[in-house]
Amino acid sequence: MVVAPLDALSVQDALPMPTPLDWVEAPMVDRICLLRQGVPASWVRQAEEATGLGRSTLCALLGLKLSTINRKLNQKLRLSPDESERLMGLQRLIGEVEVVVRDCGDGQGFAAGRWLASWLQRPNQALGGANPASYLDTAEGREQLGRLIGAQRSGAYV
After folding, report:
1. pLDDT of the chain along its 158 residues, tens only?
2. Is the pTM above the cut of 0.70?
3. What are the extents of the domains in the chain?
4. What is the distance between the alpha carbons of residues 141 and 31, in angstroms, rounded to a whole number?
5. With contact defined as beta carbons under 8 Å apart, do 135 and 144 qualify?
6. HEC profile of 61-88
């Protein structure tokens, strides 16, 4: 994934949201550059579609203010770097699910975003019975969730 500076593009004409796999496999420097610039608010809609979660639920899980996100969507603005990191952290988790499925066999027809949305809302023994969704609003929490997803390769946690 090569990141074009968003300053060179109007937000309306911004690049489409990278696929989860592209985001996971992109060079770290490209991801950080894009996060620092802020991603288009329109990418929230794509995350809604990928996960099947409504905007209010998605915002609540990520610790984003719904009114702020709606305003930025209506005005075709970028998300702040913090908002961008939270949204793209979710995209990264979807990508990590796709990597596990790809590495374990045929993922044809598997909807990683929908699976993740369901997994996030079920109690998890590795988290002391907490729902993984309760960890989505912090970088440390998203990192831990990524490790849990990776551990599923061996069947260690479900």
Report:
1. 545 544 444 444 457 889 998 999 999 999 999 999 999 999 999 999 999 999 999 999 999 999 999 999 999 999 999 999 999 999 999 999 998 888 887 777 889 999 999 999 999 999 999 999 999 999 999 999 999 998 887 665 55
2. yes
3. 6-151
4. 19
5. yes
6. HHCCCHHHHHHHHHCCCECCHHHHHHHH
